[in-house]
């Protein structure tokens, strides 16, 4: 089995910090996308939980598309929120994105990097 790494050179985080991990890793039909925050061009996009949720999920889908995967291939999503009160608002965005065929999911509350209200990672599968 071959392992393919997307963005293994690492990305850029806030303040120009080098991020020392791959954006995604693919093996045996599985794609694991690293946790995505509401960042564009290395900076957190300010906004409420709805806007930040859309951007974090969009960042995941852009990486998935780069690897040849789509929303129908998502089997599991991990969500980290900084406040339990964001749960219902995040669910609205989640339903907009995944519709009537949602993947399995875990949602938890924890501290995140400054100004991030949400982080999302996805696991996808396509038969090799």
Automatic annotation (TrEMBL):
Domain of life: Bacteria
Gene3D superfamilies, A to Z: RutC-like
Pfam families for the chain: Ribonuc_L-PSP (PF01042)
Family designation: Belongs to the RutC family.
Full protein name: Reactive intermediate/imine deaminase
Provenance organism: Thalassotalea profundi
Phylogenetic classification of the source organism: Bacteria, Pseudomonadati, Pseudomonadota, Gammaproteobacteria, Alteromonadales
């Amino acid at each position: 089995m071959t392992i393919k790494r997307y963005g293994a050179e690492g990305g850029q985080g806030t303040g120009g910090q080098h991020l020392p991990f791959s954006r995604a890793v693919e093996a045996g039909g599985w794609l694991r996308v690293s946790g995505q925050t509401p960042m564009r061009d290395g900076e957190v996009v300010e906004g409420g939980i709805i806007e930040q949720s859309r951007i974090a999920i969009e960042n995941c889908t852009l990486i998935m598309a780069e690897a040849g995967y789509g929303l129908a291939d998502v089997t599991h999503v991990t969500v980290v929120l900084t406040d339990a009160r964001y749960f219902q608002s995040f669910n609205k965005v989640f339903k907009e994105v995944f519709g009537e065929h949602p993947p399995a999911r875990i949602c938890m509350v924890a501290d995140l990097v400054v100004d991030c209200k949400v982080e999302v990672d996805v696991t996808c599968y396509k038969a090799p």
